[in-house]
Amino acid sequence: MILRAVRYSILYMKTFSALHNKVLSPGHKILMPYKLMHFDPAIFGENAAEFHPQWFLRNKSLVGSTSYLPFRFFARREVYMFVAPVLGRFDIRSQSDTKGRPPRIPVTTITISVRGILGPVAGDDVII
């Protein structure tokens, strides 16, 4: 099973702002699930679900991050410490489809908003 974490940002209002018919006051917090926004055709066009590396080549401000993430290396190492034994201990393979086509990498569902781990699209299973 392939699982991915949902990305959220917490924004702190510094000034009064209007969002649709609501007025947001300074000091309030907004929780924004931006992973879902990245796949929104209204924002990124009809092919929002496809990866286009030229987006990053055209806009250099999208490359890198200005965020201070002091524990990012620790978090990456924690994931490796979990994934490496799982791959070594279990026979993991993709489930073949009913038409005899070779297995493909399962796709993460993006149609629902959850507070943690996203599962694969229905039918995209992994056999362990």
Automatic annotation (TrEMBL):
<dbReference type="GO" id="GO:0004497">
    <property type="term" value="F:monooxygenase activity"/>
</dbReference>
<dbReference type="InterPro" id="IPR001128">
    <property type="entry name" value="Cyt_P450"/>
</dbReference>
<protein>
    <recommendedName>
        <fullName>Cytochrome P450</fullName>
    </recommendedName>
</protein>
<dbReference type="GO" id="GO:0020037">
    <property type="term" value="F:heme binding"/>
</dbReference>
<dbReference type="InterPro" id="IPR036396">
    <property type="entry name" value="Cyt_P450_sf"/>
</dbReference>
<dbReference type="GO" id="GO:0005506">
    <property type="term" value="F:iron ion binding"/>
</dbReference>
<dbReference type="GO" id="GO:0016705">
    <property type="term" value="F:oxidoreductase activity, acting on paired donors, with incorporation or reduction of molecular oxygen"/>
</dbReference>
<dbReference type="Pfam" id="PF00067">
    <property type="entry name" value="p450"/>
</dbReference>
